[in-house]
Amino acid sequence: MAFPLTTTQTLSTPAAPAAVWRAFERVDLWPTVLPALLTARLEPEGPLAPGQRIVTRATAESKASDIIMNVAAVDAPHHLKLTIDDPAYRATTEYSVVATAGGTDIVVAASLEAFGFMQTVRFLMWQQRLVPMLRQTARERAQALIDLAERIGDAP
Fold first, then answer.
1. Which element (helix H / strand E) includes 56?
2. Residue ranges of the alpha helices (H) in 2-116?
3. Contact 16/104 with Cβ under 8 angstroms?
4. What is the rounded average pLDDT of the residues 39-43?
5. pTM for this entry
6. Residue 57, C-beta contacts closer than 8 angstroms, at least 6 positions apart
7. What number is the average pLDDT over the span 94-102?
8. CA-to-CA distance for 68 and 118, rounded, in angstroms?
9. Are the beta carbons of 97 and 77 closer than 8 angstroms?
10. Domain that holds residue 71
11. What's the CA gap between 76 and 83, in Å, rounded?
């Protein structure tokens, strides 16, 4: 398997594209649909823009970690790219919002790139587990944002 490890999938919702984008922007509401999150905030506050950070704190009960996601690219209301930069890896998630006749498709592409020889060896040894985990995590996060979009609908 080639590096970085990647996965792409499409999820559909009857929610309008504007509602989906609003769910991306309402970082403060992400913990209401992502049970592993205790808090989430956008720094600095404002509309999603490259250079911002999404700072999350995990619940004590979850096996998740506190994470800082960097907003790498935004083309509102069509595309959002987030990265997690760690000394050993970079995780990238890209969301594309596509209007359909019945609502919206969200194409979520996730990748995981190792840094350094030892981390690359680990990724090679664990790729049979890492790819399904990457796929599941990307799907769960996208579905949670869809759930939020459906809940908030057209509300401002």
1. strand 53-58
2. 17-25
3. yes
4. 95
5. 0.88
6. 37, 38, 39, 40, 66
7. 96
8. 24
9. yes
10. 5-150
11. 17
Burial of 75 (0-12, 13-18, 19+ CB in 10 A): exposed
Checking if the pLDDT of 1 tops 80, the result is no
What length is written for the chain? 156
The Cα 82–Cα 10 span in angstroms is 17
Contact in structure between 71 and 50 (CB atoms under 8 Å): yes
Q: For 4-26, write each residue's pLDDT tens digit.
A: 888 999 999 999 999 999 999 99
- CATH number, domain of 15, equals 3.30.530.20
How far apart CA 2 and CA 12 sit, in angstroms, is 28
Answer yes or no: is 156 within a domain: no
* Phi, psi (rounded to 5 degrees) for 15: -65, 150
Residue 81 located in a structural domain: yes
Domain presence at residue 94: yes
Q: Which residue is listed with tokens 């587990």?
A: 129
Q: What is the DSSP letter of 78?
A: T
Q: Is residue 155 part of a domain?
A: no
For the chain, the domain total comes to: 1
Q: What is the largest CA-CA distance in the chain?
A: 49
